[in-house]
Amino acid sequence: MTDTLHIIGAGLAGSEAAWQAAQAGVPVVLHEMRPKVGTFAHRTGDCAEMVCSNSFRSDDDERNAVGLLHWEMRAAGGLIMQMADRHALPAGGALAVDREAFSAAVTEALRAHPLISFAPGEICELPGEGRWIIATGPLTSGALATSIRAATGAESLAFFDAIAPIVHAETINMDIAWRQSRYDKGETEEDQKAYINCPMDRAQYEAFIDALLSAEKTEFHEGETAGYFDGCLPIEVMAERGRETLRHGPMKPVGLTNLHDPATKSYAVVQLRRDNALGTLYNIVGFQTKMKYGAQTAVFRMIPGLENASFARLGGIHRNTFLNAPTLLDEQMRLRSRPNLRFAGQVTGVEGYVESAAMGLLAGRMAAAEMKGQTLPPPGFETAMGALVNHITGGAEAKSFQPMNVNFGLFPPLEEARGGRKGRKDRYKGYTDRAKEVFSAWLAAQA
């Protein structure tokens, strides 16, 4: 084997793909345009930079599909999970990381690998020869996106991702706010107090909604439409759907007791999650926004406890481009019209950090196997990875294809599983038990 695998994009998917292929003995060249060519959301040239949030979401591998995906990636020796675990922060039942330390550690591991080399600079066209994985993510450069559209013959598909603001912890008024994870979730006291909570009574909530609705928003460019992904809706868009929407979403007060006034039930609660290991930065959970910067400062300081908040970063909005993967990719994640090209990560139509990295893991392993003259089938649909790759390569309806987080609705039904809400916990445990068995067998077959 003398071929080299080239990977475009050193985000979560590209980094994981490079690691998996190199661990399989395949030489890898990782092409990354940052920091020479920047994006709206990125701040550094490091690999696997996390821009929207510092959370990999639930780490429950027994009753949560995202937690199951964590388990599968750990079982497969995934670099992203290794470094996430190493730089984890208290976050209740979630896996959150110190994003700068995490990204630096991924970069260091990739640069230290003897089979991985870096080629800085922008790739503007799809390569005609060689083995390539395109893992350029939601912020694929304009030139490369144009080349992809020309090669696929498909019109651009896009939605908009919004970025949540980050607050300096020292400017949060802890005489009003308190520390508590929802339902006191977590094994340690640190986990059980991983979030900072800002309470609102009804009058404060109504005033906040009024301010959201009237705030000046970012305008779209001509020809753009606001096709948001429901898992990352700007808060003002949620408010437009109904005044109570936020109370049943990111501002729900359930499972929280105000330590300053235990007898009074909050009408709504804004949660902040630690964003770095020092605990000096906190992001406002679920508060992605497209408000203009001046409006953000004014509106967010209406939140009790944040009246004097200083912001390390305000929210923003960016275009997120993805393929109509069910029509374009085969089950090996190759472009049907040009099978020397694989795609991985969010550009394939998965949504979320973990899902993107998982598709990078599969693409890297599949490419390495192919370069050794073998064919690696995807994991069974009973697994989290298998369910995702099935969704993007044929399981979804092409005409209405939209980005998707991993969820148990993508899994084959369990035989004789109890239906309804009462049977949900046992049913979810059944899904994860079955998935772990199938995924372990898939890994064993590669040994």
TrEMBL record:
One Pfam assignment: GIDA
Gene Ontology BP term (one): tRNA wobble uridine modification
Domain MnmG N-terminal stretches: 5-374
EC top class named in words: transferase
Cofactor requirements of the protein: FAD
UniProt binding sites for FAD: G9, A10, G11, L12, A13, G14
Reactions mediated catalytically: uridine(54) in tRNA + (6R)-5,10-methylene-5,6,7,8-tetrahydrofolate + NADPH + H(+) = 5-methyluridine(54) in tRNA + (6S)-5,6,7,8-tetrahydrofolate + NADP(+); uridine(54) in tRNA + (6R)-5,10-methylene-5,6,7,8-tetrahydrofolate + NADH + H(+) = 5-methyluridine(54) in tRNA + (6S)-5,6,7,8-tetrahydrofolate + NAD(+)
Chief subcellular location: cytoplasm
Keyword field: Cytoplasm, FAD, Flavoprotein, Methyltransferase, NAD, NADP, Transferase, tRNA processing
Keyword Methyltransferase found: yes
GO molecular function, one term: flavin adenine dinucleotide binding
GO CC term (a single one): cytosol
PROSITE patterns for this protein: GIDA_2
Cytoplasm recorded as keyword: yes
EC number, as in UniProt: 2.1.1.74
Compartments in which it is found: Cytoplasm
Entry similarity comment: Belongs to the MnmG family. TrmFO subfamily.
Function in brief: NAD-binding protein involved in the addition of a carboxymethylaminomethyl (cmnm) group at the wobble position (U34) of certain tRNAs, forming tRNA-cmnm(5)s(2)U34.
Protein's name according to its UniProt entry: Methylenetetrahydrofolate--tRNA-(uracil-5-)-methyltransferase TrmFO
Organism: Rhodobacter maris
GN (gene name): trmFO
